UniProtKB/TrEMBL annotation, chains A, B:
InterPro entries: ArsR-like_HTH, HTH_ArsR_DNA-bd_dom, HTH_MetalResp_TranReg, WH-like_DNA-bd_sf, WH_DNA-bd_sf. GO terms for molecular function: DNA binding; DNA-binding transcription factor activity. It comes from Streptomyces palmae. Residues 9-104 form the HTH arsR-type domain. It holds the Pfam family HTH_20. Gene3D superfamilies: Winged helix-like DNA-binding domain superfamily/Winged helix DNA-binding domain (1.10.10.10). This is Transcriptional regulator. Keywords: DNA-binding, Transcription, Transcription regulation. SMART domains: HTH_ARSR.
Length: 104, 104
């Protein structure tokens, strides 16, 4: 696992609003975003989220979150750890994260 | 056409945030919402929107918009006319409509 390709990211500034909305319009991805919002940056590896999906599906959900500018990932040893791109995303789409986070 | 069933509506207060986001995460529906936002209430019938889809698909898109609390429809003679539920939707999801309308 430690030799895999580094994840590709999209900066929120380059994300169309439709892409951001679609990324957040899914219960699994919303769950991940909500869990990340209450976790320390880079403290959560991909396997630690409480979501009812398999490894391949989870990997797809993280790819969608990266492409929407919501999540940044970094490989540390065998672990891929995450942070919510809260400030950059808020700057691009003011109020959107707050809206989905308050709905828990 | 004038004897069809009246459209069913969902009030924004009863709409989950995922449903609202999914409704807006589509270029055709965004187009309809944007056109409605600059039109007088009840002035636009379903056939007057500049979107590249057939009648059945358009009918589906309007059903999604009604279910998300975004659009209200009323049958007047043979015409089904529309209004954006701007205030009710804004009350339920503050800032969300503004976010998608500014992105045109």
């Amino acid at each position: 696992m430690s030799h895999r390709t580094a994840p590709e990211h999209t900066h929120p500034d380059d994300v169309p609003v439709e892409t951001a909305l679609a990324a957040l319009a899914d219960p699994v991805r919303l769950s991940i975003v909500r869990e990340l919002s209450t976790s320390e940056e880079w403290s959560r590896s991909c396997g630690t989220f409480d979501v009812p999906v398999g490894k391949a599906a989870l990997s797809h959900h993280f790819a969608v979150l990266r492409a929407a500018g919501l999540v940044e990932q970094r490989d540390i040893g065998a672990k891929r750890v995450n942070r919510l791109r809260r400030e950059e995303f808020e700057h691009r789409f003011p109020g959107l994260l707050a809206l989905v986070l308050r709905e828990e």
